[in-house]
Structure formats: C-alpha cells, structure tokens
Amino acid sequence: MNPEKDFTSAVMLPERRRITGKPEEIKIVNQNNKIYDYLYLPDISLIYSKLLYKAIDDNMHLIYHDKKAFIHIQ
Question: What is the pTM for the complete model shown?
Fold first, then answer.
C-alpha cells in the first residue's frame, strides 16, 4: 500500500484554498421535496479529487450529482 496514493488534494482558485485528505464518494442523495434557503455548486476541484465531503457541513444535503457536477442545498 502506497500512503501517497491514499491521499489527494484540491486547490480552489483564485483564493488558493487547499484541502487534502483521503478521497471518498458521497452517496447520500436528498429525495424529499422540502424547499431550502440556499443552493451551492461546489468547486470542480473538490469533485475531481473526491474531497467534497471535507468541505460541506452537516446542514447541507446533496440533491443531485453525476460524474462532473454536485448540487448541495442548505
């Protein structure tokens, strides 16, 4: 097992905010019809690196995702 392959990083521009960690898939999709206050489209670097889970909080719900896009609501 290569420890360097177990971790990845994402850099969000223009702020150069860096998030590192072990890549994980997000599997929970919100299927209720509740109306929320905010809609978030996360930075693509978080999606490609599979680090989106590190950037969202417990109040956010995933409502849509495919290979290139994730949409969260709060």
Answer: 0.64
Instruction: Report which of 45, 48, 64, 51 is spatially closest to residue 24, judged by C-alpha positions.
Output: 51
Name the token pair of 10: 């994402």
CA distance 48 to 26: 12
DSSP code at position 74 = -
Q: What digits encode the pLDDT tens for the residues 32-72?
A: 667 777 778 888 888 888 888 888 877 777 777 776 666 66
- Tokens 């999709």, residue? 29
